[in-house]
Design brief:
WH-like_DNA-bd_sf; alpha/beta; disordered C terminus; transcription regulation; phosphoprotein; five-stranded parallel beta sheet; DNA-binding; four-stranded antiparallel beta sheet; 252 residues
C-alpha cells in the first residue's frame, strides 16, 4: 500500500508574535506543518529536534541575530533558509545571502507571496536531493565542480561557495559561451518566476570574487550588457576598453 507523503515541515523564527502567527497561519492553510520559535537559541534547539525541511528566519532577533542562526543552521546541514528583513538595503541582502540564505523577503511582505517562495525553494531542494544518478564532473577555466559531492575547486584549491553560488556556477558551467539573462538565471537557479533581479547581480559579484584571478577584470564570467552574463570556458582576458573599465569599476 502506497504511503501518503508527509507534509513539509517549516520552522518560523520571529520575535514578533503577530508576524509569526500570520506566517504560521498561512503556511498551515497551505498544507505545511509549522513550528515556531521567538529567538535564536530556541530556533536552534527546535531545528535539531524536529529537523525542518525549511526555515523562515527573521534577521533581527533577540539574543542571537538571524545571521548567526543561519550560519549555525547551515553548518549543521543543508536546510533551506528564507530570511525576513525589515530593511531593504543591499547590504542586508548580501549578508543574508553570504551566510547561505536561499531567499529573502523584505518586511512588510505579502504572506501569500511568502508561501509561494517557500514552495519554490522546497521544490528546488527536493529536485536536488531526488537526482536519479550522480552528475558528471564539470570542468572549465581551471574550475572543477562535483555536483554529487557539492564540492568545487579552482586550480586544485577548494572553494568556499554558498549553496546558491554553487548552483549558479554549475548552471553557467553547463552552458558555456551562452548569454544568460538575469531572468533566466533567476528562474533556473533560484526557481523564482518573480523577484528582485539584483539578487542575481549580487551573487555574480560574490562568485567572481571567489573564482576570478582579478574580479575587477573578470575572464570567466563576462557581462553581456543589456542581457546578463556569459561563461567563457577558455578564460581569455578581455581587451582593455569601455567594457573592461566598467566591469573594473565594480559593476556587475
Amino acid at each position: 500500500m502506497q504511503q501518503t507523503p508527509q507534509p513539509s515541515r517549516v520552522l518560523v523564527v520571529d520575535d514578533d508574535p503577530t508576524v509569526a502567527e500570520v506566517v504560521a497561519g498561512y503556511l498551515g492553510r497551505a498544507g505545511f506543518t509549522v513550528d515556531r520559535a521567538a529567538d535564536g537559541p530556541r530556533a536552534l534547539e527546535l531545528a535539531a529536534a524536529v529537523r525542518p525541511d525549511l526555515v523562515v528566519l527573521d534577521l533581527m532577533l533577540p539574543g542571537m541575530d538571524g545571521l548567526e542562526v543561519c550560519r549555525r543552521l547551515r553548518a549543521a546541514g543543508p536546510v533551506p533558509v528564507i530570511m525576513l528583513t525589515a530593511r531593504g538595503d543591499e547590504e542586508d541582502r548580501i549578508l543574508g545571502l553570504e551566510v547561505g540564505a536561499d531567499d529573502y523577503v523584505t518586511k512588510p511582505f505579502s504572506p501569500r507571496e511568502l508561501v509561494l517562495r517557500v514552495g519554490s525553494v522546497l521544490r528546488r531542494a527536493h529536485a536536488r536531493s531526488a537526482s536519479p544518478r550522480p552528475a558528471p564532473l564539470l570542468r572549465a577555466g581551471g574550475l572543477v565542480l562535483d555536483p554529487a559531492a557539492r564540492r568545487a575547486t579552482k586550480d586544485g584549491a577548494e572553494l568556499a561557495l554558498t549553496l546558491r553560488e554553487f548552483d549558479l556556477l554549475s548552471f553557467l558551467l553547463r552552458h558555456p559561451g551562452r548569454a544568460c539573462s538575469r531572468e533566466e538565471l533567476m528562474n533556473e537557479v533560484w526557481g523564482w518566476e518573480f523577484g528582485d533581479l539584483s539578487t542575481v547581480t549580487v551573487h555574480v559579484r560574490r562568485l567572481r570574487g571567489k573564482i576570478e584571478d582579478d574580479p575587477a577584470r573578470p575572464r570567466l564570467i563576462r557581462t553581456v550588457w543589456g542581457v546578463g552574463y556569459r561563461f567563457e570556458a577558455d578564460g581569455v582576458r578581455p581587451p582593455d576598453g569601455p567594457d573592461a573599465r566598467s566591469e573594473g569599476a565594480g559593476r556587475a
